[in-house]
Amino acid sequence: MATSYDYAPLFRSSIGFDRVFNLLENAQRARSISDWPPYDIVKTGDDSYRISIAVAGFAQDDLDITFQSNLLTVTGKKQEASDDGYLHRGIAGRPFEHRFELADHVRVNGADLSSGLLSIDLVREIPEALKPRKISIQSAPALTPAAPAQIEAQKAA
C-alpha cells in the first residue's frame, strides 16, 4: 500500500523550498526496484558522511563513480567471465546502479575499495559567503539641536 502525501499546505507557508518538495515527491514516486547491493549511509561527523556499498566480487575496474549536479551515481558492471567450471554460482555479479541525491555544498571527498566494501566519503563545505556572520550594531551620533532657521524680513517701524 503506497501512501501519498500532500505538500500543498507547506507551499503556503514556505518560500524557496521547491527543490526539497520535488525531492520528496520524486523519492516517494520512484522507489528503488532493487536495493542490491546493500549499502549503509553513516554520519561520521558534523559535516561528513560515508556511503559503504557491499560490492563483493567486483574489482576496481568494474566500478564507476560519477558526481554531477548534486547527483552521485555508483554503477557496477563485471567483466564477462566464462561459466566454465562452476558447479554453483551464488556470488551475484549482476550490474547495478545506485543514485544518491546530495544536498547543496556536499562534495565527494574520496573513495576506497577494501575487503569487498566500496566506501565513499562525503563532506559538506558551506562557502564563506553563506555562513552566518555577526552584524555589528552601530549607534547613530546624537543629534545636536540645530539653530532655528532665520527668515529675513524687514523690520516693522
Give helix % range.
10-25%
Q: Please tally the helical runs, counting DSSP H or I stretches of 4 or more residues.
A: 2
Radius of gyration: 30 Å
Class derived from helix and strand content: mainly beta
InterPro entries: A-crystallin/Hsp20_dom, ACD_IbpA/B, HSP20-like_chaperone
Family: Belongs to the small heat shock protein (HSP20) family.
Keywords: Stress response
Protein name: Hsp20 family protein
Structure notes:
- This protein is mostly beta strands and 157 residues long.
- It folds into two domains: 1-31, no CATH class; 35-80 and 90-127, Immunoglobulin-like (Sandwich).
- The chain is 11% helix and 31% strand.
- It is built from two helices and seven strands.
- The longest helix is centred in the N-terminal third of the chain and has 12 residues, at 18-29.
Can you give keywords for this protein?
157 residues; mainly beta; Immunoglobulin-like; four-stranded antiparallel beta sheet; three-stranded antiparallel beta sheet; 11% helix
